[in-house]
Amino acid sequence: MSKIRADRSVCEGIGMCETQADEYFMVDDDGFVEVLQEDVPEADRALVAAAVASCPVAALKLEG
Ligand code: SF4
Q1: What string of DSSP letters covers the chain?
Q2: Which ligand 1 atom is at minimum distance from the Cα of 25?
């Protein structure tokens, strides 16, 4: 199982992550990413990895 790490101090609220994997990421009312589910099962790893890679300011990491 992999884990999502998000650095909200870097996030610019662009929302690429939410667009690609809205079960895991949401841009909240303050305009920063909120991780809805930190644990990523193997079946969703590629989906979440693509969403993490799409962040233009590298605010997201997928560990494990
Ligand atoms: S893609 Fe990056 S900058 Fe955009 S909302 Fe997600 S974490 Fe924030």
Answers
A1: -EEEEE-TTT-----HHHHH-TTTEEE-TTSSEEES--EE-GGGHHHHHHHHHH-TT--EEEE-
A2: 6
